[in-house]
Amino acid sequence: MATIAYLRVSTEGQDLNQQRLAILDYAHKHRVTVDAFVETQRSSQHAIQRAALMQVIEGLQPGDRLLVSELSRFGRSLGQILQIIDLLIQKGVRLVQSPT
After folding, report:
1. Which terminal CB of the chain, N or C, has fewer other CB atoms within 10 Å?
2. Is the confidence at residue 43, as pLDDT, over 60?
3. pTM (2 decimals)?
4. Containing domain of residue 39, as a range?
């Protein structure tokens, strides 16, 4: 069972370090080891960020855990976020949002 942390920034004002600290704090408090951090930086093309997220999800196995600092890291709309959550449920991946 792997634990993967997904971090994404979409604007210059956002900071990956804040997301990383929130996830590491959660992991420490819950005695979870983060096996890998996957980061996507600001891109002019939303499709590139979406492809990066889908690649992460494709690599996950049932029982794996995906950590995010906020569900909004998955998409720009509620519909996109719900699609990702549904896909994770179908794959048997546990989703954890760490409090920021």
Report:
1. N
2. no
3. 0.84
4. 3-97
